[in-house]
Amino acid sequence: MTATLAPLTTPLSPRPEIVRETSAAGAISVEQRLSFAELAYRQSWLRKVVVLAVLAAVWEAYGRWLDNPLLFPTFSATVEAFATAILSSEIPTKALVSLQTLAIGYGIGIGLAALLTTLAIGSRIGTDLLETLTAMFNPLPAIALLPLALIWFGLGQGSVVFVLVHSVLWAIALNTHAGFRSVSNTLRMVGLNYGLRNLSLVRAILIPAAFPSILTGLKVGWAFAWRTLIAAELVFGVSSGSGGLGWYIFENRNALETTNVFAGLFTVILIGLFVENVIFANIEKKTIRRWGMQH
């Protein structure tokens, strides 16, 4: 026996829509205006300036507390000696000599690193050659080769350039090779599907993809070359007939002009900061950040 349902005769009435107004007190603010302190804290260059100002203040305070200019001059005395040497063109001349020598060694090192990396990515024997040479010579301090360089190239620019090439070559070649090897096969296949071959594939796909590692190698190579150059000039002095910043520091140390020694070191630091925060930062901004590889 089955029960039968009675037909629904009364139509369903629609549920009324309830709209509640949000009060101004409970409203959530999506955008919030930052204070001046918060805006200033977001500026990287301003934070670095504050760090440098604090270091200069500590330097000045310690120099005044020690009160021994022969041992540790104050920051203000160093800046005064630096300004005097700048106005007399002594430091610019020395810095130009050092930078010219550095440019020669750095350029040759980049060229040889590019050659070794090309061989390494083109054949297995090239990879074995690069890995073996890097394992042999990368741990070897560049300054340890300077006596040997003096025997081969004599007292002059050639011996300094030789140790500069050694300090630059292995760091750049190792990082560049690691960058090329880290490029995914998917990315290579994308380039091949677009019809890119040989040099066009390297220029359009491999170099942009590996550029973070290449830039890291250039930075490391620059730092190694800069410190090696100053150390070589400090130990052996004259290069190419006229000394650079290292020779300027060495001469003033012999004359017990400690303030001038600090002025020379101050110049070395300023050039290092300029290269790192202006030149390499702009290269990074126009390449890696522009290509979306770094935020």
Structural class: mainly alpha
Kindly report how far apart the N and C termini lie. 76 Å
Helix share bin: over 70%
Number of strands: 0
The low-pLDDT segments are: none
Annotated CATH topology:
MetI-like fold
Description:
With 295 residues, the chain is mainly alpha-helical. It has one domain: MetI-like (MetI-like fold). 25% of the residues are buried.
List strands and helices in order, with pairings.
Elements: H1 36-41, H2 44-66, H3 75-87, H4 90-122, H5 124-137, H6 146-153, H7 157-181, H8 185-193, H9 198-236, H10 245-254, H11 258-286
Membrane topology: Multi-pass membrane protein
Subcellular location: Cell membrane
Main location: membrane
Labels describing this entry:
single chain; membrane; flat; 295 residues; MetI-like fold
Structure summarized in a few sentences:
The chain is mainly alpha-helical and 295 residues long. Helices cover 71% and strands 0% of the residues. The protein has helices at residues 36-41, 44-66, 75-87, 90-122, 124-137, 146-153, 157-181, 185-193, 198-236, 245-254, 258-286.
